[in-house]
Amino acid sequence: MANLGTKSKKEKANSTIRKYNPSAIEKKWQKYWAKNKTYQPNLDSANSSTGSGRGKPFYNLMMFPYPSAEGMHMGNMYAFTGSDVYGRFMRMRGYDVFEPIGLDGFGIHSENYALKVGRHPKEQAEVSEKNFYRQLRATGNGFSWDSKVETYDPEYYKWTQWIFIQLFKAGLAFRKKASVNYCPSCKTVLADEQVIAGKCERCGIEVVKKDLEQWFFKITDYAERLLNNIKDLDWSEKVKIAQRLWIGRSEDTEIDFQVKDNDFKVKIITTRSDTLFGATFLVIAPEHALVQKLKPKIKNWDDVEIYIKTAQSKTDFEREQSKDKTGVVLKGISAINPVNNKEVSMYIADYVLATYGTGAIMAVPAHDDRDFEFAKKFGLPIIHVIEPPKMPNILRVYVDDQDRSDLAQELRNMGRPMEYWTPTLRRYDVDISESGEVAEKLEKAGVGSDDDLEEIKKGGSFALEFEPAGVDFGTVYTGDGLHINSDFINGLNNEEAIQKMTKWLSEREIGGKTVHYHLRDWLISRQRYWGPPIPLVFCENCAKKIKNRESRVKNRQNFKKGELENPGWIAVSEKDLPVLLPDVKDWKPTGKGTSPLATVESFVKTKCPNCGGPAQRETDVSDTFLDSAWYFFRYTSTEFKDKAFDKKRVEKWLPVDMYIGGAEHSVLHLLYSRFITMFFNDLGLISFEEPYIKFRAHGLLIKEGAKMSKSKGNVVIPDKYIRKFGADTLRLYLMFLGPFTAGGDFYDTGIEGMHRFVKRIWVLVTSKSSIDKTTKEGLRFLHKTIKKVTEDMEALRYNTAIASMMEYYNFLSKQQTVSKDEIKTLILLISPFAPHISEEMWSITGFKNSVHRAPWPSFSQEHLVEKSTNIIVQINGRTRDVLSFNTADINNKRLIENTARISKKAEKYISNRPIRKVVYVPGKVINFVIDNGNGRAV
Ligand SMILES: [Zn+2]
Ligand SMILES: [Zn+2]
């Protein structure tokens, strides 16, 4: 039997060992997989007795990539590898795995790159596509290449446009003039979701507001469903939380404040109607329509007008985040608090946004931080209506370590030790809520005021101060408590008070309960070139027909819901799809609020699909997030030219079984694709309404402690590492960096160690050194490793799975002989991570077919009996015996104690003396404290 690779001299001496050549091996097997369609399931016959029919269909999806020609970076490879490892694992467990890939190449991201390199987006797309797919093949992922899609392919965006038309026909696409987010750098509008902390999600430039007429999707109609379904999703918890917050359901109360001596009302929405008695003024947004209506009565209009102009020049983000609260009182105007008929003044202030709620708030300065700041600044009344619960009465006592008096001892015993003030003077917090005895004693001892502290710090013994108890009316209190100064809700807590107040308001028809969502409608139009043209035309003739009441009634049947709701806008006939994106020279964004397509006359001029009259095409393109909201449907049906997807296919493969992607898409892509899926369900196209059964967010890959970014110039491209070490080493290294859901830190130096590990495995497997039978110890280690790796794979703990394989390798390398079974298992376990070398080793050791089609090894419990653990037996702290226990039993204190007590040596010392105490440190020591016969412990 040969030595198994622990000594390099012998390794070198062994002439039968082949050299590990990753580049040749990887190319060889990539060709083999392509030729044999190893990873292409039969999309129709999976899970049937014919065809591939291996098992249950398993849709393993990774998030749609949108790379530029700079190509795939290490972060992409990290995400894809983690997803691919899971897919391979599931395939070996008998599933028919579908793992498609494609390219989200339409949209601002790709167009911005084309702008940067000065190439037409269409030409650029060809370059990017070629480069990206080349890179992907080199990583060795098990993609179902026959099913790829690119969003800029007319065969794809034809159906993106078709989806737009379905939404339009259903009344879920509408046009309206709105104050929208506009990125001055990308020269287009953005959805709320694409504005991160006031900045453009794509380019990082500060977003401004513009009034523009735009297309929206009514995703808010789905808010309740989108929210309710979250609880049943098996998704990363942080992503579920992000979605809930973004949808942001709140149950509020509406309250009408009558403007004094006027017909106008100010409608406000609040979550805290219980504080209505504390509402001492109203604040409305400078843009609030009421301001203009009240203009004739406002006595300081000049000031008001200046303030409005200043407010409009600020971004929402600046306005909400500003530390310094500004505002202007509306002189001559006041409102009536409906609950007590008290007159309250009215202000405009920019911290209230017109777009949020009703654009007006009731200010309750005693119980809201922003209102409090505002009231302080403008000298407005502050009325407390909630009493904070009584705080425990805490004495802060400063006790010197050297003070040996009884009182000092007592304080040390009673108090909670806190920080040291001087090297010897320590603070203790003593709760005297129950008894004031200590305070009295301190008073008698002549200490007890804050003033003493300085004195005593110099060298003294102790001092104290009192924490205030009860209500502090000098600050804001936002918590729960009993209501005061509030007439019929006095004595109630927040929840009870809100209920009673809401009822009181609705009985008098001056308010009541409402439900609100933070979610806004999806702004879908973009004034850009590189996207699917919105498939609508505008027809004057049809607009007239719809606007005229008589003619509308007469022609009702001829129009779809969206057409009636958006007079003049007519959907392109479905047989005329796709509306091709014309090849134009002037494709750069104009910045004039229109798309570059608006200047292409041959594109704009068309015929109305409804009446045949002259019409104009919509020239905006749709947001790229629509492209990616349904791509996973298309993957299943790429060969179908007459439908977006085939129902049978989709029902077989969807919902997606495992979706892996970045947490940064928590509220964008994931929410939009859920909405589109629900819409498909409503159309009766599919039977389910959630697209992804399981979603896991992978962690972030960083580079030597820093986030990878183009601006820092530390973006790593995988190509050179693959050339030097092979994709297998790189894959293993990436997955070893940390738990996949937590991310990892990439070091150039770290990869070398992994490469050595791969080479060692190669040597171990390729040296002919196997016997037929696995030893008993070998069996135990084998099954233990299978169990650990299997459990880790299921939980995406790839790093510890690899660590177990390393341990297993170490074990095998120290054995005189290894069995064929041991080698086989090692290859199988490592194959999802290192798909090429495992194929090569599989074939060298004489196995047929692809290792990736072989079943995942199973473990059996009978071999999992653990080693024994030695436990020291002590009597009164002295070691008297050492006993061996089954490791599985070390937490069974009763068993350990009973066994140890009757052990020969221990029993001699214990004899019949009473045991006072048994101290057990699991897995280490058990100590019996016994009487020495005189009633004292020896
Ligand atoms: Zn931008
Ligand atoms: Zn028409």
Short description:
This protein is of the alpha+beta class and 938 residues long.
Poorly predicted runs of 5 or more residues:
1-16, 48-53, 465-471
* Secondary structure: helix percent: 25-40%
Which percent band covers the strand fraction? 15-25%
Overall radius of gyration? 36 Å
Small molecules bound: zinc ion
Total beta strands: 41
Reported for the largest beta sheet, the result is:
7 strands, mixed
- Structural category: alpha+beta
Q: Mean pLDDT, rounded to whole units?
A: 87
Query: Treating each run of at least 4 consecutive H or I residues as one helix, how many helices?
Result: 33
General shape: flat
Distance between the termini: 58 Å
Q: What does this molecule look like?
A:
It is a single chain. By secondary structure, the chain is an alpha+beta fold. The chain is 35% helix and 20% strand. It is built from 33 helices and 41 strands. The strands form twelve sheets. Strands 11, 12, 13, 14, 15, 16 and 23 form a seven-stranded mixed beta sheet that branches. It is flat, with a radius of gyration of 36 Å. The chain starts with 7 loop residues before the first helix and ends in an 8-residue tail after the last strand. The structure holds zinc ion (2 copies). One zinc ion binds at residues 183, 185-186, 200, 202-203, 205.
